[in-house]
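Session log. Operator J.P. requested a structure for one protein chain; no other inputs attached. Running the standard single-chain path with token output.
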Amino acid sequence: MKIYEYDEIIDVLLDTSGDADEETGLVFDVTLLDRLEMERNEKIENLLLYAAQLTSDAKEISEYATKLTARAKAKTAKADRLKEWLCSELMRYGDKKFETRRIKATVTTRNKVNIVDESKLPEKYIRTKVEKAPDKTAITAAIKAGEIVEGAELIENKTLQIK
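Structure written below.
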């Protein structure tokens, strides 16, 4: 049975004062009422425990993902250092290519701009980014102070904390 169904039956039982309900045929019965409330509470408890378990699982997965990301970064950095060293070793002897049956490598040269001092660059080489975003903290304070802020409203957000 669903939680709302328990609520409906409990409401009907509480509304009937000794007489049978015409629609459902339920008769007020204290033991039935107690049993329904216990089942309802048990169902809610189980759902809360399930939600807590899902939250715990999500946190554990997130922590594991963070560890894997750190490991991936370390492996990438190590591979980059190794490739940089191999590149310099190949170039030291004038080799630009290396090839075996299992692997092939080619040293290529590309240009890359290195900014030494950004303040000395001419203005035409500076890109300006402008970002507009609502100041939600200021809007909240204004609405709480009684101001009317067109285009914004303060809504109540309910959350369930499980401990």
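Operator note: The first helix runs from residue 3 to 15.
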